[in-house]
Amino acid sequence: MIHRKSERELQYMREAGRIVALTLQELEKAIRPGVTTKELDSLAEEFIRRQGARPAFKGLYGFPASICTSINEEVVHGIPGPRRLREGDIISIDVGTEVEGYHGDGAWTFPVGEISEEAARLLEVTREALYRGIEKAVAGNRLTDISYAIQTYVESHGFSVVRDFVGHGIGRRMHEEPQVPNFGPPGRGPRLEEGMTLAIEPMVNAGTYEVEVLPDNWTVVTKDRRLSAHFEHTIAVRKTRAEILTRP
Amino acid sequence: MAASDNCGIELGRLVSSKAGRDRGRYYLIYEVLSDRFVRVVDGRIRRIENPKPKNIKHLCFHPKVAEEVAAKLRQGERVTNAEIREALERLISSPEGGA
Q1: pLDDT confidence of A100, banded at 50, 70, 90?
Q2: Which of A74, A91, B31, B64 could form a disulfide with B39 if both were Cys (CB 3.0 to 4.6 A apart)?
Q3: How close is the nearest chain B Cα to the Cα of A167, in Å?
């Protein structure tokens, strides 16, 4: 069952999403060589709570922090710690919030200082892939029209999309039905209807799409240890154009 | 936070047949032969003595895994047909909830 949200429910999700976007903006300002991911986590947690929301990742499936920080070859679910950012790194930050029982989920990959040309291109392609996917999230389309748009855009630029992790429905819970893969043929899966809320999140690798999970049981890294980027918005399906909920 | 794709090929996963004379029938994955072929069992018609080979293209993957069966299979322990039947029944009757 995919739950379609009422206007009242969407109001809460807009607020949760707005706080996600604001938090990412705050974090962007703090990103520079020398800062630790733990510092970013504390900053985010404090900011989210001050906005009257709850950091929804904390304790979710046992995750120990408020945000996920994934550097370079780390794809998603990196745990904040004492590691310091260095010039030339890329860092993906994933933020989740909860307001009145409703969730927002968004991610962005930021450059740390000057980054390589390949890294810059990876970020650009992943961000654009997200928006290509969002374009397909309109009522009447099928779910995997989103997946197909993302995959074809990414692969036409010589990168690959992660298979083992996927986007998801979102609302009362962080992860609801349906799964939103970033790959596969179009025209499959449930038909999209107004009020469905989805977290669309391409995870794009510079090399192979294969990933593995580190012994901390959270951090996902690329198998070939090449770079990976991650951009995510929570959206609501609408008639002519998806509404992006994770925006300031 | 990304959801892990909980519909991959793995031991103990609930699947149903999309094609073949067994179409619509539910099974558990008993053995993974390659990235395209698996052997499946239902403990009734397809018992562990003769698991059915299936092309994954002809299977529908469900977001449910029989954890106890999977754990035993991974360790190479014996699983009985009764256990398979029990697990199948339980998975089929519970609502589909994805994490």
Answers
A1: very high
A2: B31
A3: 6
pLDDT tens column, B1-19: 998 876 778 899 999 999 9
Which residue do the tokens 């933020």 mark? A95
Q: What is the mean pLDDT of chain A?
A: 97
Strand ranges across the sheet with A203-205: A160-161, A203-205, A228-230
pLDDT digits (tens, 9 = 90+) for A46-76: 999 999 999 999 999 899 999 999 999 999 9
Report how many Cβ contacts below 8 Å link chain A to chain B.
52
Percentage of residues of chain A with pLDDT beyond 70? 100
A105 annotated as ligand-binding? yes
The total domain count for chain A is 1
A193 is in an annotated binding site: no
Q: Which domains does chain B have, with CATH numbers?
A: 13-93 (2.30.30.30)
The beta-carbon neighbor of B5 closest among A57, A77, A163 is A163
Choose among A63, A68, A165: nearest Cβ to B3.
A165
A2 occurs within a structural domain: no
Using the predicted structure, report yes or no on whether residue B46 has a pLDDT greater than 70.
yes
Identify the DSSP state of A155.
H
Residue-level pLDDT at B98? 38
Tell me how far apart the alpha carbons of residues A117 and A164 are, in angstroms, rounded to a whole number: 27
Q: Is A87 assigned to a binding site?
A: no
Q: What is the mean pLDDT of residues A155-170?
A: 96
Smallest Cα distance from A124 to chain B, Å: 20
| Cα A125 from Cα A119, distance rounded (Å) | 10
Q: Shortest CB distance from A166 goes to which of B3, B96, B97?
A: B3
CATH code at A187?
3.90.230.10
Residue A183 gets which letter from DSSP? S
Distance CA B65, CA A119 (A): 38
Tell me, what's the pLDDT at B6? 66
Which residues between 197 and 216 in chain A have a beta carbon less than 8 angstroms from any beta carbon of chain B? Answer: 201, 203
On whether the CB atoms of residues A99 and A56 are closer than 8 A, the answer is: no
Which two tokens mark A38? 């733990």
Q: Rounded to an integer, what distance in angstroms lies between the CA atom of residue A146 and that of residue B60?
A: 21
